[in-house]
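Duplicate of #3305? Posting structure anyway:
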């Protein structure tokens, strides 16, 4: 394991060095990502200021769930990009995944180290700025316990989104082509988690509660941290299930991934 982790660190280092070969291009790309993503929140914020609130939540409170989701998704997308379809799908179709299987190194770590998108720092920075803004707005309601719970939520969301990427990559062994419905749960899940969940129709809430339990990673913890009333009437302990659900999902995703690798039959490329 120590050798595998050391190799992963070397693979990531190579990725970073290659992306920094053209520093001006990298900086411009990172800042463009920050500005583009940031403009979405600015536009939403200006609209919300006009109407004062959405579902009983003001701008600072919505900024909390928005910022923590953007921050977490950015971290995940930087580290788990090897499992993103845009990189993993072509790897399988072109037979390059077979090359990884021939190497005497943990296949999961190899895929993890095959792509490290450093420009995601722009989205991470954008999420951090929004999250900082929200905390400044709501700091009066934050206790020490709540502040300490925020990084737990970040790690939980990173594992949660990473699990969805791993599951999506595994399905490629059988489909070869992108299953667009999976984007509903990955990128769509990130969008849903950026708003108070009770504003969505019941059908949407059911999907992101029982099929993809995103509601436990964002809405319920936010209700607790922000001292907001819960119109869904769920038990108070739901706010603390985030790390347990994220860990369970990650372990299940890895189990599915191992099943997929074991039954992989190559593309013949």
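Output from current build:
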């Amino acid at each position: 394991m120590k050798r595998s982790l050391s190799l992963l660190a070397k693979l990531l280092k190579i990725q970073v060095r290659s992306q920094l070969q053209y520093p001006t291009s990298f900086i411009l790309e990172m800042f463009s990502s920050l500005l583009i993503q940031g403009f979405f929140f600015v536009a939403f914020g200006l609209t919300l200021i006009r109407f004062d609130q959405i579902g009983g939540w003001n701008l600072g409170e919505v900024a909390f769930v928005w910022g923590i989701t953007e921050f977490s998704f950015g971290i995940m997308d930087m580290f788990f990009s090897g499992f993103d379809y845009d990189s993993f799908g072509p790897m399988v179709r072109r037979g390059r995944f077979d090359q990884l299987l021939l190497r005497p190194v943990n296949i999961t770590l190899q895929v993890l180290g095959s792509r490290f998108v450093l420009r995601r720092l722009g989205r991470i920075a954008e999420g951090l700025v929004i999250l900082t803004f929200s905390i400044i707005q709501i700091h009066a309601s934050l206790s020490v316990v709540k502040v300490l719970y925020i990084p737990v939520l970040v790690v939980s969301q990173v594992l949660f989104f990473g699990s969805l990427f791993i599951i999506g990559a595994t399905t490629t062994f059988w489909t070869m082509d992108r299953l667009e419905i999976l984007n509903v749960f990955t990128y769509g899940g990130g969008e849903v988690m950026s708003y108070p969940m009770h504003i969505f129709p019941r059908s949407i809430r059911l999907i992101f509660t029982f099929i993809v339990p995103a509601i436990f990673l964002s809405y319920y913890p936010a209700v607790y941290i922000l001292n907001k009333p819960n119109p869904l009437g769920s038990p108070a302990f739901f706010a603390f299930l985030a790390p347990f659900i994220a860990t369970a999902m990650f372990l299940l995703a890895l189990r599915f991934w191992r099943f997929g690798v074991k039954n992989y039959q190559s593309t013949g490329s």
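Confirmed duplicate; merging threads. The longest helix spans residues 144-175. The mean pLDDT is 88.
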